[in-house]
Amino acid sequence: MKFSRTLAIIFGILAPLLETVRRWGTWRDYPPALLDDYILGAFLLAGAWLVGRRFGVGQRLLAAAWGFTCGLGYDSFFEQLRRYRLGVIDPAPIPSGAVLIIKGVAVLLAIVALVLTLRAAKPISSFDFRES
């Protein structure tokens, strides 16, 4: 859980920050492309925080946050790949190929974190979401 929680804090801070830098001059073209990373960051930070307060419930929230991150990351990576193959230049201040590699590594790390979080989770024996 320590790896997953630490990575959630790192992703939760870096994803919104880096996306803001990436889309600084173009975010008004399609605001959801910027806002989804803020939602992702808040979700991961909330999960990481709750794991430290109420472990069982926090684990479930962190698993959900990693699942959300994997879903967004999957779409983002393959859309980036499609645009890269079409020669569309990314708005980031770094080459489009570098953005593609960063997104690919991020998705792989998110998948690893999701698997580790799920493996550490205890089965839910009832619908009582108080501390387990």
Features:
132 residues, single chain, mainly alpha
How many domain units? 1
Silhouette: elongated
* Average pLDDT for all residues: 89
Radius of gyration: 16 Å
State the secondary-structure class. Answer: mainly alpha
Number of helices: 4
The largest sheet is: none
Number of strands: 0
Measured by DSSP, the beta-strand proportion falls in under 5%
Helix-strand string:
HHHH
Kindly describe this structure.
The protein has 132 residues and is mostly helical. The protein has one domain (2-120). Helix content is 76%, strand content 0%. It is built from four helices and no strands. The chain has helices spanning 2-22, 32-53, 55-86, 96-120. α1 (2-22) runs antiparallel to α4 (96-120) and α3 packs antiparallel against α4 (96-120). The two termini are 16 Å apart. The model has no long low-confidence stretch (mean pLDDT 89).
Element layout with pairings:
Blueprint: H1 2-22, H2 32-53, H3 55-86, H4 96-120
Helix pairs in contact: 1-2, 1-4, 2-3, 3-4
Brief digest:
This protein has helices spanning 2-22, 32-53, 55-86, 96-120. With 132 residues, the chain is an all-alpha fold. The chain has one domain (2-120).
